Records
---
Amino acid sequence: MTAEIRQFLLESLTEMKYDTDGFGDDTVLGPAGIDMESLALAELAMRVEDQYGVRFDADEAETFAAMTVGEFCAAVAQRVRTTSAT
Amino acid sequence: MSTGVAVTGIGLVSPVGTAVDEVFDAVCAGRSGLVRPPEGHALHGVVDVAAFSPAVDAASVIPAKEARVVDRSIVMAVRAAGDALADAGIEVGRDVDPYRVAVVVSGVGGLATLADQAVERSRRGRLGVSPFMLPGVLPNMAAARIAIKFGVRGYSSSVGTACAAGGQSIGEATRILRSGEADVVVCGCTEAPLFPTFADAFGNALALARGWADPTTASRPFDRRRNGLVLGEAAGVLVLERPGFARARGATVHADVLGWGATSDAYHPTTPRPDGSSAAESMRIALRDAGLSTGDVGYLNAHGTGTKAGDAAEAAAIRDVYGDAMPPVSSTKGVTGHLLGASGAIEAAIGVVALRRGLLPPTHNLDDPDPACDLNHVLEQPAAAAVDAVMSNSFGFGGHNVSVILGRANG
């Protein structure tokens, strides 16, 4: 699941015109890494919702900037599992 | 009478070119920008004729990450502003304090992008609406994007006066410079109205030219057979400076803005006051502001959109103001189409070149002047005439009237 989410994230970032060269699990999504800003993170949350049917509220989406790629994929996978189980 | 301000930079994106002399040559030679919308374009089959500007790659002027949901009007404005600043030889921060530079760049905003997003909202619900939509469509965002791109940190705004907005932006910029609030103002207007909803609104209001087999003949200002305007897209940006500031930095001054005037019709949302009295007063205010008499104006670039009511009202206003001292008059919209708010900026640029070259563009397609529009028309060919001052009129829905007077550069 996490690998699939990672691929989805890579494709999303490419569509959103972000440079994913050197992209790795330890890369931070926000300013210290991929440099996604607030609107881009909001769009990423929408893309996740559209793809996986899970929703992150505004407060949660704001935490994406500090996450690494690995942490983000794990968080999405966890949300998908939780949602599927309910 | 107030002091003039210097025009030191011009940047254009228009249906007849992107270089100011290219645009001027086109309106003089009748090289029309009016075409049938091509197959595949959203306007194909929606309108008979439109005036398209060259494509501008959004990512060439706005970071690619932010350029996916940015309206064409904003993209064109940033390109034109960059060209205008380059023409002026100004790098903000190097040549001028960023806080002493202002931006007044206007337009109705990104309505085409808003319409696209509305379609996506209907199709996909909430998830169809991009978080990037607001900075991509708001009418202040052309000014804001210019400030961001070029590091302008002074006053910035946009004026919402429809088809008068280009002229009014030049006027507001003049006011700011005269007040001493800024040394440099980047001003103008940008419009990208070529999408079906907007075109249908004009069409359903019976405002569009229709029934012309040759699209280049559809825009016919002041002609007896005129039957509406031709929608066009464009951006026009001028760099204005306090004359002392321009002189001190050794700038090339293209022309001076000598004065301007603005009035309201107080009559109807879309129909001009038929007697043209408020439009006439905007011209009189501009003359007083410039300290000129009617005989000092050597050329008048009319608003002249090709609508029955608008052209007749403007002609009445011009006759009322100038009487026997009427200068040669033309509307360059016969070639460019109606560029909405951007018209005032594009036509001011045309006025600058007319002053420099001593050449007055004709009104293209004015084959049979309407007696209701009895003016001192420049017909068929450009007229050679050394002129010291040019008036440019811009009138907008809502009854906004603006007149700007440009003069030969005093250096």
---
Amino acid sequence: METLINKLKAAALKMTLLMALAAGAAFQGCSGTEQGNSKDEAVSADAATAVYVAPGEHDELYSFLSGGFNGQVSVYGIPSGRLLKIIPVFTQFAENGYGYNEESKAMLMTSHGFVPWDDLHHPKLSRADGMADGRWLFVNGNNTPRVARVDLKTFETVEIMEIPNSAGNHCSPYPTNNNEYVLAGTRFSVPLDMKGGTQDVSLNDYKDKFRGSISFIKVDKEHGDMELDFQILVPGFDYDLANGGKGPSEDWVFFTTYNTEKSATLKELGASQNDRDYLAAINWKLAAKYAAEGKAKEMPANYYHNKMDHNSHIAKSTVKKTVRYLLPEDCPGMMYLLPAPKSPHGIDVDPTGEYMVVNGKLASSLPVFAFSKMQKAIKNKDFDGEVNGIPVLKYESVLAAEVKEPGLGPLHTEFDGKGNAYSTMFVSSEVVKWSLKDFQVKDRMPVYYSPGHLMIPGGDTREPYGKYMVVMNKITKDRFLPTGPELMHSAQLIDISGEKMKMLLDFPTVAEPHYAQGIRADLVAPNSVKFFKLDENTHPEAVKSEKDVSVTRNGRNVKINMTSIRSHFTPDNIEGVQVGDTVLFHVTNLEQDWDVPHGFAIMGANNAETLIMPGATQTLKWVPQQAGIYPFYCTDFCSALHQEMQGYVRVSPRGSKVPISFSTGEKKPVPPATASVSK
Amino acid sequence: MKTSHKVLMLLAGLSLGLLFFFPMWKIYLNAPQYPEGLELHIWVNKISGSSESVLQNFNILNHYIGMEPIHAESFAELKIMPYVVVFFMVAGVTLALLGRRRLVLYWTMLLLLAGAVGLFDFYMWLHKFGTNLNPEAPIKVPGMTYIPPLLGSKQLLNFDALSLPGWGSLGVFLAVVLAGLVYFLSRNTNKTASINRKNVLV
């Protein structure tokens, strides 16, 4: 009986969904055949050739997809959709020991301690003259507010900075057009204690005590190193997404907000009451000027700044103790609010820098603001009141047009550089192409299913590469072979070079991508590091010749400085280790050849392996718990004799008389392959 | 010898200088897993590769078959050869100044002889490396030796080895050709040459 009720319930739910879909279709006035499970109807006949990259050939573009809740970035080739690499950023990565080995642990340190996970949302490429320059990728950690920098020479995370006075670092990280700043805004407002932390207050005090912050991170022109220059403390809304201007608007950055109602509870209702929230416009150049001129105040803070040294491969943490801040009420002309219909999500500025598209996820139309009108409204003081001393501009004075009936649930928009915009419609599961000339819808294509972000390579720059579009879908359902309750999310590659969009390819993505960036391969590939030069390895425990390896005891610590080369470790027989010793394996990979990393793993270690790149040194910590013989071996297939690349550690009971000893081969000296390494 | 012949002879002597700017010989190795190839460059005074770590990678590969590692220090020739080349250059320039035809012939023949000795030495060297294998080597192919070709290509297990003279050898070639040309062209200038010599003597 109960199952019958359940069945009825399920059926009822399905019916409601169907009705909603039908309503959606009617609402948009498009033909019913385009809706529903149309599968491959939209796939053009030449799709296979359009995405085919022959074996041995390279893709046209790199794309960097955020991993969302896996804390990583995945790198895909476009148009093939081939996965090229996974870059761990905020997450421990057992595959190569990131966050497990002694060198990289400091990268994940925060004021809350070691936080080996985060929710990585938005990758943004560094810029020169408004265009992606292929040097670095900035990404945000949403949960424990952090901004990281990935070096595109090595595809490794080289810097992670914690953001104080922030909670839910969501509208982040947005580089200005010449990489002067990377901006990071808070998603959640919190009661700041003005000492870098949050206050212990009642949630009923939300309206009075909660504030948000926008952080201005300065970027070193040459090396990319970040530094938190100052923050702006903003009203206690939720700040959702951000985007910078370009051309005429390049001094400005825009943030969408929701919960201007300042509700602390059940936000799905509480934050959806106002018909209009705001688009916050900040003149970042003026803000930097105010900060430089001494308008900024200083407060105590406590945040971590972690950097990986390129030559030693050792990450170091610094704890920063102060932060400067500006208050908008003290800085006239720095910040304005533009009313934007109902809980807007994405804010996207077109390639000319004139139009700001505000994707109101609960609104029925898509408003487009004009930068020139905004300037005029500021000049004429077309204000509609103010919030915390920040003028609110009149909606009608800044509006260029509203795109009518664009679809249901617009989330994000990108541009093709030919005067067209493409918006994802989450609820109606489609991408809609519309024109910036007449604001009319030109084409629509169903995507599977429920798209969040979309990406046109360079679609947020002055000159988009208007050939492809990648749409990142939240739900996969029947697109791939079923894999139990959890399915890979799906990305879809769409040809946007012609009048009509053409579906080319589905490919699975890792975790849940929120936004992506694409760049021409020739801007990144030629700079790729093939191996680290052994001569430049400054790791204090590096051993550059097999003649110099050592095993030394210092109290209960045993330090093993060893080397790996095809196809052996030196030493490969180690004795004299005792139960409970802290053993540090400092392994230097002596190879100077591309694609020859060596791995190191030892039986029973309460740790991961570590993967050592050619010319680098990595350290694995091991505390043996029982006496016996422990094999170690290379985990990355390195040569015809890879299986033989192994060794043993003898562990004796605590207090044993076995002396420290080590060897490789029965007769010293050194095995043949090494001599040329010594200097 | 006419002034033009002397200039040619001067060029013959100086062209040996190319040996200091370019490798004499290059050995190219190609294998499926080395699509970019490995190049061993043999100079008059050193051994190098197409990039700085090539020698190490050569040695890593060679150790599988038990070949001795290759180092510049292993070859006494590399210490002697620069002096030999400098000697020939100085002698060539001196001959150009003296303008004595017969000596040009001797110089050329001596240079040819030195070149032949060099090539023979190089062959012995390849032979030694290709056959003097460690009996404990992990990879042993019965009857197989690994002597790279002196000139041309040869398949060595998975490697396609190609051996060719480098631009440095062009110096030796130029020196011989130019000096030969001087000897040939100056055959009718004996008289004027003797007159010239008198002039010089006066």
